[in-house]
Design goal:
single chain; 471 residues; mainly beta; Immunoglobulin-like; Neuraminidase; 2 domains; 6-stranded mixed sheet; 5-stranded antiparallel sheet; 3 helices
Length: 471
């Protein structure tokens, strides 16, 4: 059985406090390396060529936030010993441009009071006070002269920061154990490799199987059975149809179905034989349409918009096109980086989210030429919140948000539906049925006014439907 690296188990829900810093972006250019982030020193091919920068994008900023951007920079020492990773004479410059076309460049300064390798750029007040601004950084290793750009698209696809306004919704304390009953169970399959079953493999701390799913406009469910290299299609209450996925290896990935054109997009995560993710396109009969290497090594989600497939790293918010024309035109990696967006372009608006402490910030924006129009909401909770699973608009313009709530001994999901005025239209809890591991942000889908949840037990995997009761 295959062994996969994974996030910590939800059986110990305290992991959430450190793993859900939404917006964390890790940039690890391989340069001449053969490994990826976290590679052992035996896979590093050249001394002094490893430079990494992590940062928390200030996607949504509110009054009282520190007017700065922080980067943690780590390098290998000149002798190339991975045991010395983190030893770095770093620096760089952050480049800003506001909606008023004001620009500034600010050098990074070492923060002597922070952990080793923390560098800070103070945002000029003229930039910070703007409704929105863009920025990117050029990070340097002064010892080797190496440099990287974050985000990777640089000036062609910079990070966007929006100023927060609007209402705040206080959800109070979460009442565990009072979850909503599903409207219907629309798909289920036992573990196994036989017809209608889903493969189960070993993971680091919990089994892995049924990594992702999607639902088409007719309500038919497609479940990714990556261990058996196939899709299971559940339609009309009949036994699931099996759709082979030639070439797919047994690693976790995300799934999106374009039922209008009959294309299934499967994001195959980086693995031992593939150093970067691969987005594959299939017909719904299992025919191969094509595949394309994804520029971002941390890509973990797929979205569809306007006949194109976009991917995003987890948990950043930068989306880049990988396939156009419904799977028949791959986008090269250089173009992916140059055309990245802060949110996947969509006819019903783009949603960008940020989790900070026990607060969730949400911005819904529309691009209007070179400017943005934005509406924002803030959700606070007395119970700790974790990963934001879904933030998507309903046909009526209401916003549905799904996120984790947890204590040291309990974990559930909270659903909040917000109307355009900023008022709470609906709120309820859902169980966290996560016996097996799936992709981190592939447990929920919103189709029309119905919310679908992927769950599992020791008996198998299932998909439940919850009709929201709001349009």
């Amino acid at each position: 059985m295959a062994i996969f690296c994974s996030r910590p188990s939800r059986r110990s829900v305290a992991w959430s406090a450190v793993s859900i810093v939404a917006g964390l972006a890790v940039v690890v250019p391989l340069l001449a390396l053969t490994g990826t982030a976290g590679a052992s020193k035996h896979r590093i091919a050249a001394a002094g060529q490893f430079l990494k920068a992590t940062y928390l994008p200030i996607k949504l900023r509110a009054p009282g936030d520190p007017q700065e951007i922080r980067y943690d920079i780590s390098c290998l020492p000149p002798d190339g010993d991975a045991e010395g990773a983190g030893v770095c004479d770093g620096g760089g410059t952050v480049y800003f441009r506001s909606n008023a076309n004001l620009s500034a460049s600010v050098p990074l300064q070492l923060d002597p009071n922070a952990q080793v390798g923390r560098y800070v750029a103070a945002v000029p007040a003229s930039i910070w006070n703007a409704p929105w601004f863009t920025y990117y950084a050029v990070i340097r290793d002064n010892t080797t002269g190496r440099s990287i750009v974050v985000p990777q698209g640089g000036s062609s696809a910079p990070q966007v920061s929006f100023s927060m306004s609007g209402s705040t919704i206080d959800l109070g304390s979460h009442a565990f154990g009072a979850t909503r009953q599903a409207t219907a169970r629309v798909a289920s399959a036992a573990w196994g490799s036989g017809a209608g079953q889903v493969g189960l493999e070993d993971g680091i701390d919990m089994p892995t199987g049924g990594a992702a799913f999607d639902v088409d406009n007719a309500g038919d469910v497609y479940l990714l059975d990556e261990a058996n290299s196939r899709l299971l299609e559940f339609a009309g209450g009949a036994a699931p149809a099996q759709i082979p996925l030639p070439g797919l290896v047994g690693v976790r990935g995300d799934l999106r179905i374009s039922d209008a054109s009959g294309v299934a997009y499967v994001l195959e995560m980086a693995n031992a034989s593939q150093p970067k993710p691969l987005l594959r396109a299939y017909t719904l009969q299992g025919g191969i349409l094509g595949s394309s290497v994804v520029a971002d090594a941390a890509a973990a989600q797929v979205r569809l918009s306007g006949g194109s497939a976009y991917v995003s790293e987890y948990p950043s918010s930068m989306w880049a096109p990988v396939f156009q024309n419904d799977g028949r035109t791959p986008v090269d990696t250089a173009t992916q980086l140059a055309r990245a967006f802060p949110g996947a372009p969509a006819a019903d608006g783009n949603v960008v989210v940020l989790s900070t402490g026990n607060e969730i910030r949400i911005g819904t924006y529309a691009a209007n030429g070179a400017t943005y129009q934005l509406s924002t909401d803030r959700i606070t909770s007395a119970t700790p919140v974790a990963d934001i699973q879904l933030a998507q608009t309903l046909p009526s313009g209401k916003l549905a948000v799904v996120f984790s709530v947890y204590t040291d001994t309990a974990h559930e999901y909270e659903v909040a539906v917000i109307d355009p005025s900023g008022a709470l239209a609906d709120q309820f809890a859902l169980p966290a049925a996560e016996w097996a591991q799936s992709m981190p942000l592939s447990r929920f889908r919103l189709v029309g006014s119905s919310l679908y949840e992927l769950g599992s037990t020791d008996a198998g995997v299932f998909v439940d439907r919850y009709d929201l009761g709001v349009s």
